[in-house]
From TrEMBL:
Species the sequence originates in: Hemiselmis andersenii (Cryptophyte alga)
Main location: cytoplasm
Pfam families named in the record: CS (PF04969)
Domain CS: 6-97
Protein's recorded name: CS domain-containing protein
GO molecular function: unfolded protein binding
GO terms for biological process, alphabetical: protein folding
Location in the cell: Cytoplasm
InterPro entries for the chain: CS_dom (IPR007052), HSP20-like_chaperone (IPR008978), NudC_fam (IPR037898)
This protein's GO CC annotations: cytoplasm
Superkingdom field: Eukaryota
PROSITE patterns according to UniProt: CS (PS51203)
Keywords: Cytoplasm
């Protein structure tokens, strides 16, 4: 099966909060069946695309998923492969795949995002009065 991927967005993903993460891989110009698709979901990694072609999504996941509760399906009306990953820990994901560069380090944008998240977490731990609602610590 010859498929041309929508390269403007190789894939889209959304964090569904505590429930999990949804990945949508669009395809164009072909009528696919499950036999044309290759999806491997492991606790800490994913590899998805069409058989015989380079994967569209591949790498180490941001956090662990429940393999038994994660599923994929073809959405013919939307012309895409939909992968639902069930998180083991109900926390926000800033990214789906942490893609290392050739030296094995994270790309600059991913490194920045993780730094912001980590700094925010450390700040909130050391300043418990500064919750999600903003505001000032008690007593000020």
């Amino acid at each position: 099966v010859e498929v041309k991927w929508s390269m403007s967005n190789a894939y889209k993903w959304e964090d569904a909060g505590e429930d999990g993460v949804t990945i949508r891989i669009p395809f164009a110009g072909a009528s696919l069946t499950g036999r044309d698709v290759s999806v491997e979901i492991k606790a800490k990694s994913i590899k998805a695309g069409l058989k015989g072609q380079p994967p569209v999504v591949q790498g180490t996941l941001y956090d662990r998923v429940s393999v038994a509760d994660s599923v994929w399906q073809l959405e013919r009306k939307e012309s895409c492969i939909v992968i639902n990953l069930e998180k083991e820990m109900p926390k926000p994901w800033p990214m789906v795949v942490a893609a290392p560069d050739a030296q094995g380090a994270m790309d600059p944008q991913s490194r920045y995002l993780l730094g912001v998240i980590n700094e925010g977490g450390l700040f909130l731990e050391s300043n418990p009065g500064m919750g999600a609602g903003g505001g000032f610590p008690e007593g000020l």
